[in-house]
């Protein structure tokens, strides 16, 4: 058989690895850095796999559990904050267990690059007592996902799979392997003693889980993704002169995830080889491979732990040192020998190693690979690109309409997770709070209870409304709280890559589905005061806000206008220089990135203009006009 290789993004590798492993059901909720996993499976699906964007992560977890109860291999995808949403079923599922293999991908985001938190899924593994697989590269992720399914089935437990951003979005040449040849699922077999969770059953299962994890610790000590790379002891200057070296400090490095790749890159640099350092690679941080770690520690005086986010490996090694009365000194985040937040890099690892290996510090800090040196010489400084709403985004118009209608009035604007979080930027400055998905609706309620003289707005997107907003609206109606809910309906899940949702009329299987109406849901909940408007029609949008601002109870404004990525423009605008007074109101009030000042003249960049027309509606001199010859 001819060996086939493909250059794959880490998420693509995970997806192809899951297909190879015989996955039958895939559910998830979009969230960077995990999104492309489910999208790739949908693209490569031959029809044998059910793929869905679930309404939220909790729903995805429960759908996946049902499939695994029936004996099928199920994959659930999300980012680390999504695991919070799914934690309720996850915690019980850890006690109930599964029949088919169930892998839960929770992609962590050190940095964070596109997240609210830097939380570490490895700790969730410890909390839920579930096994955790931590790939260090796209190549390893491709094979490890299949192994995770096998362990899940063998031990009848869901398992967590924790790639991080640089593994998810890095690319590598991956050798594609034959399918694993998984049998057809047996189907669901009724057994109330297994599938119906009761306190007495949970107690018994808890004891079994503890024993299973002890066994897994031993099993993982011989699992190939965990390994000890012993030092190749090289002669020091003292050796060469015949001096005694018995007092030389014996050092090692413990690492896991993408940090392992950084460590290996630094240790094998041609100009400064550090092959006299033992390395422990941890691919399953929970249950921790204690026996392997003990073998690593027993001959070492000092160990530096290099990992991202929480000191999971570091704490595990400290426990082993104490348990076996070793004298090994463990250094890392807890001792402040490495950074306590943010992601690692080759550069940060090199600096950490220079402090840990003082005899090699000069070489480490002065050494850079030829590629790095040449890159530094020719690459210019990257331009600063602050996060901003796209030119033509209807959310800009929605925020501006509310701001104009509420000028001079006391109001608080609670925001949510999505593109519209960027409404906090100047000059709009229309996002006063942002906690988590769906919290805009409920934060506004809490604020109103304490300050009833303030008009409280909550802004939520259409996808987020379905995911986690409905409960908050029910709460507001039930408790008769005065808030104005502004639903920013742009007909897509924009921030994570334009995935379908229940309001788009399309599923991830490519089927046409009935669009679920936000308006009808609100009416069914009991909201009587609902106003609809196109935010790009400024006067209409302002009037909609004015209509509900002085009313009582739950009022809703449905601002409906598609994302510019969904509907392409049919027109553009330009500025007539002879009419323009250079007041720059178009820049100062809405902050559209398509409008700039060049040589004192206000210009609209043709390549950025999407023809929304908002700027033409606020220009006092009417200098912004439609381009009639736009194709």
Summarize this entry quickly.
This protein has 631 residues and is α/β, with parallel strands linked by helices. The protein folds into four domains: 4-220, Thiamin diphosphate (ThDP)-binding fold, Pyr/PP domains (Rossmann fold, 3-Layer(aba) Sandwich); 227-234 and 249-370, Rossmann fold (3-Layer(aba) Sandwich); 394-560, 3-Layer(aba) Sandwich (Rossmann fold); 572-627, Alpha-Beta Plaits, CATH 3.30.70.
Explain the overall architecture.
The chain has 631 residues and is α/β, with parallel strands linked by helices. The chain is 38% helix and 17% strand. The protein has 24 helices and 22 strands. The strands form 6 sheets. The protein has a 6-stranded parallel β-sheet, sandwiched between helices. β6 (132-133), α7 (138-155) and β7 (159-161) form a beta-alpha-beta unit. α1 (10-20) packs across α2. It is globular and about 80 Å long. The two termini are 52 Å apart. The model is unreliable at 234-246 (pLDDT under 50).
Please tell me how large the radius of gyration is.
28 Å
Mean pLDDT: 90
How many structural domains can be distinguished in the coordinates?
A: 4
Q: Within the largest sheet, what's the order of strands? A: 3-2-4-5-7-6
Distance between the termini: 52 Å
| Percentage of residues in strands | 15-25%
CATH class value of the largest domain: Alpha Beta
What is the name of the CATH architecture of the largest domain? 3-Layer(aba) Sandwich
CATH topology of the largest domain: Rossmann fold
Number of strands: 22
The percentage helix is 25-40%
């Amino acid at each position: 058989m001819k060996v086939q290789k493909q250059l794959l993004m880490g998420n693509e590798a995970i997806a192809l690895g899951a297909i190879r492993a015989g996955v039958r059901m895939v559910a998830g909720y979009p969230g960077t850095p995990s999104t492309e996993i489910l999208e790739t499976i949908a693209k490569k699906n031959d029809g044998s796999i059910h793929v869905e964007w679930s309404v939220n992560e909790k729903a995805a977890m429960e759908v996946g559990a049902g499939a695994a109860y029936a004996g099928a291999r199920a994959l659930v995808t999300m980012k680390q904050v999504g695991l919070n949403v799914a934690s309720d079923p996850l915690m019980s599922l850890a006690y109930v267990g599964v029949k088919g293999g169930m892998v839960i991908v929770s992609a962590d985001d050190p940095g964070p690059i596109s997240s609210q938190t830097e939380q570490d899924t490895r700790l969730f593994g410890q909390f839920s007592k579930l096994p955790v697989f931590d790939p260090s590269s796209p190549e390893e992720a491709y094979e490890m996902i299949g192994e995770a399914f096998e362990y899940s089935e063998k031990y009848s437990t869901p398992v967590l799979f924790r790639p991080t951003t640089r593994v998810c979005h890095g690319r590598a040449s991956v050798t594609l392997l034959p399918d694993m040849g998984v049998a057809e699922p047996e189907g669901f077999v009724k057994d109330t003693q297994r599938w119906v969770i009761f306190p007495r059953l949970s107690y018994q299962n808890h004891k079994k889980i503890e024993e299973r994890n002890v066994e897994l610790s031993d099993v993982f000590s011989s699992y190939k993704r965990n390994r000890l790379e012993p030092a190749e002891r090289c002669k020091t200057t003292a050796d060469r002169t015949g001096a005694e070296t018995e007092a030389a400090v014996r050092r090692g490095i413990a690492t896991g995830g993408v940090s392992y790749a950084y460590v290996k890159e630094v240790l094998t640099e041609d100009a400064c080889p550090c092959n006299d350092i033992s390395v422990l690679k941890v691919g399953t941080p929970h249950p921790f491979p204690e026996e392997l770690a003990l073998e690593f520690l027993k001959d070492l005086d000092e160990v530096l732990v290099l990992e991202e986010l929480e000191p999971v490996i570091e704490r595990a090694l400290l426990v082993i040192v104490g348990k076996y009365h070793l004298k090994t000194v463990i250094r890392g985040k807890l001792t402040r020998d490495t950074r306590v937040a943010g992601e690692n890099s080759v550069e940060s690892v090199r600096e950490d190693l220079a402090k840990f290996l003082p005899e090699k510090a000069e070489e480490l800090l002065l050494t850079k690979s030829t590629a790095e040196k040449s890159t530094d010489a020719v690459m210019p400084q990257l331009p600063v690109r602050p996060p901003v709403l796209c030119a033509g985004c209807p959310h800009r118009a929605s925020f501006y309409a509310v701001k104009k209608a509420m000028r001079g009035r006391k109001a608080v604007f609670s925001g949510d997770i999505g593109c519209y979080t960027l409404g906090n930027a100047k000059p709009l400055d229309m996002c006063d709070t942002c906690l988590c998905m769906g919290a805009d609706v409920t934060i506004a309620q809490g604020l109103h209870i304490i300050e009833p003289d303030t008009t409280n707005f909550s802004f939520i997107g259409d996808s987020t409304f379905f995911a986690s907003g409905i409960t908050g609206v029910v709460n507001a109606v039930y408790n008769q709280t005065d808030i104005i809910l502004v639903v920013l309906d742009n007909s897509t899940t924009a921030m994570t890559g334009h995935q379908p949702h229940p309001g788009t009329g399309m599923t991830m299987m490519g089927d046409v589905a009935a669009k679920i109406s936000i308006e009808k849901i609100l009416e069914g909940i009991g909201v009587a005061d609902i106003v609809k408007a196109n935010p790009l029609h400024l006067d209409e949008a302002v009037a909609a806000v004015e209509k509900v601002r002085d009313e009582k109870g739950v009022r809703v404004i449905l601002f409906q206008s598609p994302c510019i990525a969904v509907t392409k423009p049919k027109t553009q605008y330009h500025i007539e220089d002879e009419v323009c007074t250079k007041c720059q109101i178009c820049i100062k009030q809405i902050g559209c990135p398509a409008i700039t000042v060049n040589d004192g003249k206000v210009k609209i960049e043709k390549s950025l203009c999407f023809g929304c027309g908002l700027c033409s509606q606020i220009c006092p001199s009417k200098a912004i006009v439609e381009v009639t010859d736009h194709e």
